[in-house]
């Protein structure tokens, strides 16, 4: 009985560390995507006046590859979160706040991934537009 409680305590500590680490990672990606969003707005406005500089800026954003880094990170997250979360389609236990947080982080990662994909599409569209003009 004491060993089981110690094992549960250790698991809870590992889950808390996991959640804390990934909460910071999600926040960092959120800030990076917000910065990229701002650069995309600037690029959209500067296409006419400074097309060459705009291309350079868009290529630099693309080279940072937030989508690639985020895709790798979410796969790593899923592989570990799968040990904590219930099976596909099952809801996490609402009496275990750490499991709820693991599930919420999964949703946040998915939202960030969608935004990163949308930003990459916007970059490609703007670059395509600029390249057809010149």
Mean pLDDT: 87
Secondary structure class reads mainly alpha
- C-alpha end-to-end distance: 74 Å
Q: How many domain regions?
A: 1
CA-atom Rg in angstroms? 20 Å
Oligomeric nature of the chains: single chain
Low-confidence stretches: none
Strand content: under 5%
**Main β-sheet: number of strands, strand sense, barrel status?**
none
Order of helices and strands: HHHH
- Helix proportion of residues, in percent? over 70%
Number of strand elements: 0
| Alpha plus pi helix count | 4
Principal-axis shape: rod-shaped
Question: What this model shows, in words?
Answer:
With 134 residues, the chain is mainly alpha-helical. It has one domain (25-133). It has 4 helices and no strands. Helix 3 runs antiparallel to helix 4 (97-133). The radius of gyration is 20 Å and the shape is rod-shaped.
Give the structure's gist in a few sentences.
With 134 residues, the protein is mainly α.
Helix and strand arrangement:
Blueprint: H1 2-46, H2 51-64, H3 66-84, H4 97-133
Note the main attributes of this structure:
4 helices; rod-shaped; 134 residues; mainly alpha
